[in-house]
Amino acid sequence: MSVANIPEIYIQSDSREQDLFVYDFKMTSDVVKSKVNLSMNMFSFLQIGKKQVHFADASVMVNKEQSLLIREGNWLWTELLDNDDIYYCKLFFFSEDRLKEFLEKYPIQEGKLKEEVPFFVIENDEYIASYIGTLSRMAAMPSTFNENLLSIKFEEIMLYLIGKYGEKFELYLHSLISKEHSPFKKVIESNAYSNLKLEEIAFLCNMSLSTFKRNFIAEYEMSPGKWLQDKRLQRAKELLQQGDVTASDIYLDFGYSNLPNFSIAFKNKFGISPTEITK
User: Fold this and answer.
1) pLDDT tens digit string along 1-28?
2) Domain 184-278, second-level architecture
3) How far apart are CA 98 and CA 141, in angstroms?
4) Which one of 9, 36, 56, 229 is most buried, by most CB atoms within 10 A?
5) Whole-structure pTM over 0.85, yes or no?
6) How is the chain split into domains, by residue range?
7) Residue 109 pLDDT > 90, yes or no?
8) CATH code of the domain made up of 3-175
């Protein structure tokens, strides 16, 4: 799986560097789990479809009733059509320098989030729908006028969201310029029960697969593949014992591409098949 450098792939090669950038993203087929290197913070104003994003130690799913503000970094995301024949979102990118300018111009609540998260979920409303519409109409304007207006529109959405969400959003904005990153073990253990592949977890740790494996063995004294399999199978066993799900309900959630492979791995570890657990 190749890495998409965003927003660079959307910017024309002859364009000068931009610290504010709007892009209309559309597609007509599902894109499952893309590796993304996001070099700017980004609003994703979702219009049609669903979007799931895996971060180093968290994940989030939003629909067309919601939008996301995502911090720069290495992420994995999935974009789904959701019973429509098109997926559409308007992406609004802004640099850290532009955010710092805003925070200097409008001094707001400083502090630290109780729990550091790389995203902020925005509930779409009439104001945001109107705001997205004005961004669309700006595309036909002359470039110089467009740049000046875009600066105003950036301040507008920031001030509106501060008014809507208050201290919670203010603290999140300050967290975007924090250089703290999730510790290695936190990333591993946050994804222990996910369906992410080894190379995808390495990507979220900003490491090559070989470097990730070396660090993992040094930390856990076990290969990452064996450790993750044991963790996920143990969790699967617990869920099956509760009696609310069957093996066919959960095998994908724990990283298995088909039910037979899950059943074989389960029986090799516990000596009984998943179906025997639920009887």
Assistant:
1) 578 899 988 887 555 568 899 999 998 8
2) Orthogonal Bundle (1.10)
3) 22
4) 56
5) no
6) 3-175, 184-278
7) no
8) 2.60.120.810
